[in-house]
Design brief:
The structure is a homodimer. The first copy, chain A, is mainly alpha-helical. Chain A is built from 17 helices and two strands. The first copy, chain A, has one domain: Farnesyl Diphosphate Synthase (Orthogonal Bundle). The longest helix of chain A is centred in the last third of the chain and has 28 residues. Chain A is globular.
C-alpha cells in the first residue's frame, strides 16, 4: 500500500500528540508521564490515520484535521488504560509493554485516563478548526461525546462486563463490537468528514467503510487470538479462549470467521467506490488489515 | 438569604440533570443507574447554582446557562466517584450514602465516572447556547477541559496523592485546594460569564469571588472535620486528623483557621461590590457557607 502516505500520517500524529500533552504547571508529573507513556506505547494509530484520510478524500486539508485525529487517539488510549485496570480486564500487558497501572500504579493510571479524556475535548475546542468555524468543533465534540459515551464505546464495555464468562450469541457479539470497538472507528469518519465539510454522499460512504472495517477488525482480532504470534499480538495467544470469552472463532469456527472477515473487507471496499481511484489508500488499508490474519 | 431563588435554581438543576442522562439504548443499564444514583445523592449543587447566578448577575438568561451548569455538576460528580474508588481515597460513604462503587461495584463506578465526564462535554455541545452561538460553547468546552484537567482539578488530585501521609506547608495546601476544589468553582464563574457574554469587569469580579469562596469553602471543610456533626458532614468526624492529613486546622490551629475563613468570606463579598445590591444573593451565599462552620 501507499506506505509513504501512511508513514507521513503516523509521523504527523505522533509529533502532534507530543505537543498536545502540555508540561505540568506544578512540578507534579506522575500523571503527565503516565499519559505520555500510554500514548507512546505502540499502536497502529488506525483511528487518527483514518480521520486524516477521510478528511483528505472529502477534499479537506489534513493539517486542519490533525487535532481532531489526536483527540480521538487520546480517547482511544484512555479507554485502553481504564480497560486494563484490575477492576476491569486486569491486564498487565498492553501492546507487549507493561500496562499503565503496572508501570505507574493504579491511582495514576486512573487519573491518566481521566486526564486524556478531559484533554481530548479541549484539544478539539482549541484547534484551528474551532477558531475558523466553531460550529464544526461543536459538532465534533458532540459526536465524540456520543460515540465514546454510554450509548457508544462505554455502552460496549458494559455489555462486555455483563457477559463475562457467558456464552453470547453472534448478535450480541456484533452489538458489543459495534459499540466497544466500532463506535470510535465510526467516529474517525465523522470527525474527518466534519473537518472537510463533506457532503452527505461522501459522509455516508466514509461511515459505511468505517463500520465495515471496524467489524472486520474485531473478527480479525479474534482470529489472531488463535492463529497469531505473541509478539505481533502483544498478549498471550489463546487468552480469549482461556478466559472462556465468546469470540467469532468460538461461535462460528475459524473458517467461517475468515470468510466473514473477507466479506466485510469487500463490503468496506465497495462502500468507497464513490471516490474512484482516490480511495486506493483506504482500499489498501482494508486489505492490509485482513492480511494480519493470514 | 433568598431561599426562594436558591430553591428555584436547585429545582431547575435537579430536573434538568434527570433529563440529561438519557435512557440506555441497549437495555444494559447498570452504568446509567450508577450515573443517576451519584448525581442524585445529595450535594448542595453549589457549582451549578453559581453558574446560574453568575450568568444572571452579568445580564444573561438563566435558562440558557442551565445546561452549562449541569455539565459542571456532572464533572464534579464524576470526580467524586473516581475519588472514592479503592485505589484513591477508598471511601465507602459519600454524603452519608454508600459510594458508587459500594453500591454498583468498582467496574461500574469507574465507567459511570467516565460516562459522566464524557457526557458533560456533549451536554455543552448540544445546548441551546451552542446552537445560537457556537463560539461560546467552544470556549466553555475549552475552559472546562482546562480547569478539570491535569493543570486543574486532576492536578490537585495528583498533589494530594503525592502528599498522602506527609505534613505539607500551608503554601502546598493552598495550591492543592486551588486546583482540587477551586478549579471547578472558578469554572462556574467562567461558564456563567461566558453564557451572559459578560464584559471583562464583570468576569474579573465573578472569578475573584469564586476563588475566594472556593478557598473559604476548603478552610471551612477542614474546620467542620473537627467541630461538625457526622450527619451534616456525611463522613466520620475527625477523619482527616485520623488519616494524618494536613489541613488548615492541623497547620494553623482552629482559631487562625476560623479567622482565615472569615477574611476570605469578606474578600469574596468585596470582590462583587461592583454589582451593588444585585450581588446580595452571592453575598448571602458566602455568609451561609461560613455559617456552616459555626
Amino acid at each position: 500500500m501507499n506506505n509513504e502516505r501512511l508513514n507521513k500520517y503516523i509521523s504527523l500524529i505522533n509529533n502532534r500528540l507530543k505537543e498536545l500533552i502540555p508540561e505540568c504547571d506544578f512540578g507534579e508529573d506522575a500523571v503527565h508521564e503516565a499519559m505520555k507513556y500510554s500514548l507512546s506505547v505502540g499502536g497502529k494509530r488506525i483511528r487518527p490515520v483514518l480521520v486524516l484520510e477521510f478528511c483528505r478524500i472529502c477534499g479537506g486539508c489534513i493539517d486542519s484535521a490533525l487535532d481532531f485525529a489526536c483527540a480521538l487517539e487520546m480517547v482511544h488510549t484512555y479507554s485502553l488504560i481504564h480497560d486494563d485496570l484490575p477492576c476491569m480486564d486486569d491486564d498487565d500487558l498492553r501492546r507487549g509493554m507493561p500496562s499503565c497501572h503496572i508501570k505507574f500504579g493504579e491511582e495514576y493510571a486512573l487519573l491518566a485516563g481521566d486526564g486524556l479524556l478531559t484533554r481530548a475535548f479541549g484539544v478539539i475546542a482549541n484547534s484551528s478548526v474551532a477558531k475558523n468555524n466553531p460550529l464544526i468543533a461543536v459538532n465534533a465534540v458532540s459526536a465524540l461525546s456520543y460515540l465514546a459515551g454510554c450509548n457508544g464505546m462505554i455502552g460496549g464495555q458494559v455489555i462486555d462486563l455483563k457477559n463475562e464468562d457467558k456464552e453470547v450469541t453472534v448478535e450480541t457479539l456484533e452489538i458489543l463490537d459495534r459499540l466497544k470497538t466500532g463506535a470510535l472507528i465510526r467516529c474517525s469518519a465523522v470527525l474527518g468528514c466534519l473537518c472537510a465539510q463533506a457532503d452527505e454522499n461522501q459522509t455516508d460512504a466514509c461511515i459505511r467503510y468505517a463500520e465495515k472495517i471496524g467489524h472486520a477488525f474485531q473478527v480479525i482480532d479474534d482470529i489472531l487470538d488463535v492463529t497469531g504470534d505473541v509478539k505481533e499480538l502483544g498478549k498471550p495467544i489463546g487468552s480469549d479462549v482461556c478466559n472462556k470469552k465468546s469470540t467469532y472463532v468460538t461461535l462460528l469456527g475459524l473458517e467461517k470467521s475468515e470468510k466473514l472477515a473477507d466479506s466485510l473487507t469487500n463490503e468496506a471496499i465497495s462502500s468507497i467506490e464513490y471516490f474512484g481511484d482516490d480511495a486506493n489508500f483506504l482500499k489498501e488499508l482494508a486489505i492490509q488489515l485482513i492480511k494480519r490474519s493470514n
